[in-house]
Amino acid sequence: MARRSHTREVGNISSFDLSEVGAGKEGWLVNDPNLLIALDTHSLALSTRTQVLVIKFGSRHHPVKIRPDLSPIDSEFISALEWLVFDHLSVLAIGTSCGYLLLYSLQGHLIHKQIVYTGKILKFRVRETKGDLTQDMSSEEVCAVFSGSIARFDGSDIKNMLHRWFQEKESEYLVQTSNNMDPENSENSFARLPYQLWNITKYGACLDGAITGVMPPPLMELQSNQRYYRAIAIGRDAVISAYRLSENRSRSIVGAILSRVVPATFSTISSLSKMIWRSKSAPQKKPEAKPQPFAQASSLTCLKDHPRKGEKLTLSPSGTLAAITDSLGRILLLDTQALVVVRLWKGYRDANCLFLEMLVNKPSSSQPAYYEHVKSDYCLCLAIHAPRKGIVEVSGESIWCFCFLTLLLHFIYRITLQISP
User: Fold this and answer.
1) How many CB atoms sit inside 10 A of residue 216's CB?
2) 231 neighbors 214 (Cβ within 8 angstroms)
3) CA 27 to CA 415: how far, in whole Å?
4) Which of 112, 180, 252, 306 has CB 3.0 to 4.6 Å from 103, enough for a Cys bridge?
5) Nearest CA-CA partner of 322 in 305, 306, 339
6) Where would I find the Rab3-GAP regulatory subunit N-terminal domain in this sequence (predicted)?
7) pTM
8) What pLDDT, in 10s, does the model give residues 283-314?
9) pLDDT single digits (tens) 126-162
10) What's the N-to-C CA distance of the chain in angstroms?
């Protein structure tokens, strides 16, 4: 019987010149801390601190080079990279050390530029959100993680903006004007994307974080149409910390009164002073883009165990589970809804985790040949790569599968040699 292969080739990049991102050096794909990688179904993005190479699988064209307009005064550099896919639209999201969000097309055209917060964007996270009982459709949410805050973008807002941009491109209007467009004005090509921003530094600066879903309002809270989100973060001071995020910036009556009275009072005083002193109006300058103020975030719980520190956070596709690695070589499997650690692994220093789905219910002979698998046919598994042990361990909900790859590091090294020019 012929041996079955459960893998298929996604793309081949060995024919491209990748020396600009460090190809050709030993371990360049694994050991370079400044190299960012974003993998999509049809494309691969490799980024250094100043430029991005976009490789489209199955294409013989040279990689598309993207050089964002970075500020040399602030020593700005690329700090985050992620693909955003909405229906048939794929764009590349780039985050900078100054807190800017940049969206680029596959051809390297700048679609949108917007400041989110004055800080380094550590990571982008994309999560599918299911609709409630009144909504059958599901959408996505995009989160930008900072060292002390987290921002949330609604996927529908980004999707609508992308549809408008591609419609303009199809009408050949944007293509004609993009060549002469000032990069400083490119961020105002469309309306500013709305988002929410929260401060999550109560237990110290965080190394990574994520919004895991919607949660009920706190007790004794008046019911309203506002949503509450659950967020988790990891850091040096607190291994795990959890927060309840509110869409409102202020829920108290005093805060609502002050937010209305104080601006009106200052506006009245300013207008009276202008009438009295008849000050000449200064020439108006283009206002600088500023991040919006924080919304309300309340802490739920935290885990402090000095000297243990959180290192990496891996979120499941649904957001209900999270795998957290710490500085003591442990892996904690966290139930993000109950905020309970349901499993603990020890002896996995410098480990990397990845959630994947394994097919467990195969179609029977009585089912048609064109049978399409449903979600219940798959089992959620957690793959753990322990580089010091040289193994990959895959554990699932109902099965335990241990794949000991003693030559894993050598295998990665051989892949690196094949990719190098």
Assistant:
1) 9
2) no
3) 10
4) 112
5) 339
6) 28-394
7) 0.77
8) 454 455 667 889 999 999 999 988 899 999 99
9) 988 765 434 445 578 999 999 999 999 999 999 999 9
10) 37
